[in-house]
Design brief:
binds zinc ion; globular; single chain; 179 residues; alpha+beta
Length: 179
């Protein structure tokens, strides 16, 4: 399918009910949902995000996309995840970081995320996949799954004031990433 044939999606900005409503589970991956997934990948790239969840484009379904390449540096297609769930995570290894969100323009939030976790989801072809993720990829997956539960980083994090400088820790260099 040519990307130009995909409909343009408008980003939902908070506050909006769709962002605070838990999304419906997907039972069948219809052609419409496949189209939505491809449109979301395009929209994520257009908005310079590393991930995007369906409620962020006004669709209350359990579908999220993550830019694998931008999260890991590895040349891989974006993850397209239906009904994603974290099936394993190590509570002892949490990492503090600063996150942004495409639905909360200009906002930065301090969060604590699992540094490693395992996510299980349905792929576009209907088969399940279980994937161990770490670092920014793990953070992005957790961020998107929160969206599908009706939560944003504003609900789980601490807002940073505009003049908060974060110059001492290079490991938070992904802090400006939005998803
Ligand atoms: Zn977000």
């Amino acid at each position: 399918m040519a990307e130009s044939a995909l409909p343009d999606l408008e980003l939902v900005i908070a506050p909006d009910k769709v962002l605070s409503t838990p999304c419906k589970e997907v039972s069948e991956i219809t052609p419409e949902l496949k189209r939505l997934a491809h449109s979301m990948v395009r929209s994520m790239r257009e908005h310079d995000g590393i991930g995007l969840a369906a409620p962020q484009v006004g669709e209350s379904v359990q579908l999220a996309v993550v830019d694998f390449h931008r999260c890991t540096g590895i040349l891989e297609s974006p993850l397209i995840m239906f009904n994603p769930v974290i099936v394993r995570a190590d509570d002892r290894k949490k990492m503090p970081l600063t996150e942004g969100c495409l639905s909360l323009p200009g906002g930065s939030y301090l969060t604590q995320r699992h540094a490693y976790c395992t996510v299980r989801y349905k792929q576009m072809d209907g088969y399940h996949r279980t994937l161990a993720v770490k670092g920014i990829l793990a953070v992005c997956v957790q961020h998107e799954i929160d969206h599908l539960k009706g939560k944003t980083v504003a609900d789980i994090g601490t807002p940073l004031t505009e003049n908060t400088e974060n110059t001492e820790n290079d490991e938070t260099s992904a802090e400006s990433e939005k998803a």
